[in-house]
Amino acid sequence: VLTLSRNYPNDVLPQLGLWVQGLVQALADLCEIRVVSPVPYAPPLPGLPESFARFRRIPPRIAGDGVPTYYPRFLVGPGSTAYAVEARTYTWGVRGLVDRLHAEFPFDLIHAHFIYPDGVAAARLAERYGVPVVTTEHSLWQPWMDTHAHVRRLAIQAVRRCSLQMAASRQLAASITQVTGQPDKIRLVPIGLDRAVFKLPAPGVERRPHQIVYVGRLQFVKGVDVLLRAVHLAAQRVPAIKLVLVGGGLYHQRSVEEQQLRALAHELGIDEQVEFTGPKSPAEVAQVMQQSAATVLPSRRESFGTVLVESLACGTPVIATRCGGPEDIVNEQVGLLAPVEDPAALASAIGRMLCQYDRYPREFLSSYATQRYAWEVVAEQTVAVYQEALESFSA
């Protein structure tokens, strides 16, 4: 299998695409695999902004965890200026490398993550080598597909070439189908979790009874502003409440949003109740989850909700909004669901959870998560999709 994914950890962005890396590592026990993860081309020009220049520090090839991984360069513009042509420059950037790889490693199938630009490029390469292509989609297709007509056309064309598409949730599958009109090509396969990292705490590790944690990018689409307003309301009844915000922005626009969220916390007067920790390693995230009364995901849109699964594996109940993916994960046995864009309802859910978090047995939560979402389970489901794709392609 050749995995094609722009989202994959590298020396500059070690947290990028950890969910893809997790699947690749699990698949390596079931099939031969190579990873191609193109990164922006940064010419050696004086005065080049560090946001571009940093990509020069990424080596062209590594053998991380026994899986050969390649980082070819491709042309991108600042921000989204070249977004409409990225599938073309992506294909140009990887084609020579993939030609050489195919000569020494005649892969049977290409697996791309995200339909654009990865899936579009994969479809073109699959025609070149006469192999099937499977895509995994990680983002809801609305509303961004509706505002990029050219990308939408390319995505639809790529789906026609794809043998199958994997979607992590029913809402994500519906979002794709609304654009492509091809529900028969979609298979539901969730995102997995590393149960060696996200697991029950060691004996003696106690919860902090008033602490809740959010893990993810600090963006408005993630509903962090709604969460801050909810904490402001909840603090009126639970003054000891503590919100730990784990994460940050990888790119400039996201850093701007983080500063706006910090300003909002100050404006609401909850500086003492909120801690911005910045990004943390998966092991550090697991530790914070184990120590918290609940993990909260307040998103406006969410294709899945991996942090919910990881929290449950740690034995910590969850609160999420009904924003898409979380409805496939959260039920009354493992947590609470609240409406989107409703600080008062979210504050109420937080208040209820802080009064009853110990009613969710740690062992049950962890078992619920690992039996459904451990990477080994997801890898087996993925290989079944590969086999189906290969059989239909050769038929």
What's this, in brief?
The protein is of the alpha/beta class. It has helices at residues 18-27, 50-53, 86-104, 115-129, 149-161, 170-180, 224-234, 252-268, 282-291, 306-313, 326-329, 343-356, 362-373, 375-394, and strands at 2-4, 34-36, 39-40, 61-62, 69-70, 73-74, 110-113, 133-137, 164-167, 186-188, 208-215, 242-246, 274-278, 292-297, 318-321, 335-338.
Name the helicity range.
Answer: 40-55%
Distance between the termini: 19 Å
- Let me know the average pLDDT: 94
Secondary structure class reads alpha/beta
Describe it.
It is globular, with a radius of gyration of 21 Å. It has 14 helices and 16 strands. The chain has 395 residues and is of the alpha/beta class. Helices cover 43% and strands 16% of the residues.
Which key features would you list for this structure?
about 400 residues; alpha/beta; eight-stranded mixed beta sheet; six-stranded parallel beta sheet; 14 helices; about 45% helix
Q: Helices, strands, pairings?
A:
Elements: E1 2-4, H1 18-27, E2 34-36, E3 39-40, H2 50-53, E4 61-62, E5 69-70, E6 73-74, H3 86-104, E7 110-113, H4 115-129, E8 133-137, H5 149-161, E9 164-167, H6 170-180, E10 186-188, E11 208-215, H7 224-234, E12 242-246, H8 252-268, E13 274-278, H9 282-291, E14 292-297, H10 306-313, E15 318-321, H11 326-329, E16 335-338, H12 343-356, H13 362-373, H14 375-394
Parallel strand pairs: 1-2, 1-7, 2-5, 3-6, 7-8, 8-9, 9-10, 11-12, 11-14, 12-13, 14-15, 15-16
Antiparallel strand pairs: 4-5
